[in-house]
Amino acid sequence: xxxxxxxxxxxxxxxxxxxxxxxxxxxxxxxxxxxxxxxxxxxxxxxxxxxxxxxxxxxxxxxxxxxxxxxxxxxxxxxxxxxxxxxxxxxxxxxxxxxxxxxxxxxxxxxxxxxxxxxxxxxxxxxxxxxxxxxxxxxxxxxxxx
Length: 146
Hints:
The protein is α+β, with helices and mostly antiparallel strands. The chain is 35% helix and 18% strand. The protein has helices at 58-67, 87-106, 120-140; strands at 2-3, 9-10, 16-17, 22-27, 43-49, 72-73, 76-81.
C-alpha cells in the first residue's frame, strides 16, 4: 500500500528535504500490537532518492553518497521504523532517523589531528607510576623457602 504524506523533513538550518522527494510505504508490523496487530499497517518505510535529488549541491551529494554507499540501493536510501504500535509515531521515528543520517553524511570531515609529543614531566610521571605498580606486585610475591 503506497501513500503520500505531505511533510518535509528538516535536516539542518540550511537543508530541508521536500515531501515531493520522499516515498512512504506502510505495511504490517511484526512487533507488539495486541488485537489490532493483524489489521493495522503500522510499519513504515521511508525512501529518498539521494542520487536523483535536487536539494543537495553536487559536492554534498558526492560526500553523502560516499558516506552512505553501503546503505544505498540504486541511489535510494530507505529507512524502516516499526518499534511503535502507532503508524504516526513510526512515521516520526523514520523521519527523525533520515534527518540524523543525512546530517551525519553531509557533515564535513573532522580536522586532521596534529601529532604531538608527551611532555617530559608526563613521561616521568608515567614511568614512576609503572615502577610503583611493579614494586607493589613484587611485594605480593611469597617466597616459599624463607
